[in-house]
Amino acid sequence: MGEIFNGAGRAISTIMGLLMMAMGCVWILQGFNIAFLNSFMAGDLQWALWGALLALAGLIQAIWANTRATYYKRR
């Protein structure tokens, strides 16, 4: 049962990290006024910084989810 929860946790955590990276990239593009220009974030460099931080946090989340040790013992 532990293997199932471990696999599901890793999958969910990886998906969350990937979504954070995607959202961060959208914020970066909006902040630099490149894409999605019909937003209040368009052209505001503060959002490019927040997007970079969010994308970095998502990358760390995805890496951590797939490299962490497992804490259950096989019987």
Helix content: over 70%
Strand content: under 5%
Q: Tell me, rounded to a whole number, the average pLDDT.
A: 89
Integer tally of domains: 1
For the termini, the CA-CA separation is: 11 Å
Structure classification: mainly alpha
Counted by DSSP, the helix tally is 2
Q: What is the succession of H and E elements?
A: HH
> What does the radius of gyration come to?
17 Å
Poorly predicted runs: none
Q: Tally the beta strands.
A: 0
Report the major sheet. none
* Apparent shape: elongated
Structure, described:
- The structure is a single chain.
- With 75 residues, this protein is mainly α.
- Helices cover 71% and strands 0% of the residues.
- It has one domain.
- It has helices spanning 2-31, 45-67.
- It starts with a helix and ends in an 8-residue tail after the last helix.
- The mean pLDDT is 89.
Blueprint (SSEs and pairs):
Layout: H1 2-31, H2 45-67
Helix pairs in contact: 1-2
Short note summarizing the structure:
The chain is 71% helix and 0% strand.
What are its keywords?
mainly alpha; 0% strand; single chain; 75 residues
